[in-house]
Amino acid sequence: MDAPEFAARVRERFEAGTNKTLATIRRDGSPRISGTELEFDDLGRITLGMMPASMKELDVRRDPRVAIHSPTLEPPKDDPAGWLGEAKFAGTLRDIPAPQGSPFPQAPHFELDITEAVLVYVVGDELAVESWHPGRGWTRITRR
């Protein structure tokens, strides 16, 4: 709600494909990446489910901090500025009841409490990085 245009563009990147990448923290503190799917509900909340007793569920139960990357879309070979970009979230997952109508009501379901949202894309010959953090709001920088 703090940056609706930015939020809409981040959501668009996440909805560009089904498969996202989830990073969790293993028992020994090292990272683990897994494929995942997520959904945005009517209020803009981000939810996801997991297979019961999966390694990522065990990781999240032990340490709920995660990072999630949008689907990776390749830039056009002859037009890097035509790349639609990528989006990322960081935050913590919190247990929620299965959404009504879920095809897997017994599976664990989580909602993401966002601590960071990032959008990266190319403008001309520069890389643009937009981000949002609670309490700090939206920022944009460019790099050559």
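Second entry:
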Amino acid sequence: MRRLLKGQTFGQWLAEFIQFCTVGLGSYVVDVGLFNLLAYRMNVPLPGDRSMSAKIVSVAVSVVFSWAMNRIWTFRNQRSKDRRREFVLFVLVNIGGMLISLGCLGVSRYILGFRSQFADNVSANIVGLVLGTAFRYVMYRYVIFTDDSLR
């Protein structure tokens, strides 16, 4: 259990997890809001499948927001001194999270044949979000935001 908590008390871990969830909620608002604006409200030319392209753009913007907020607030005591390495790892992990979300959206649209705005949001922004969030938290905590002095 001590290894999982990385030297934190349960209360410290809980505070960190709540901060992670708060940043995640902000990232979710950015992601879902921008996705729906681009895919359904704005007349912006997007290549290929409009929903898939909108999801890629919305995830990219929310990743930058999430990295900054997690670095400044959630993992401020564990962040790496090498920002470039940290950001590259963060982007790679979030590409993995985006692929999880796109996979859910793709299954819904191309295998199950659901193509409504509601189905797109359930598959990408609920199912994909839950699976992607679990993946991201584990990777942020144990791979990305690790105090350099502990290595």
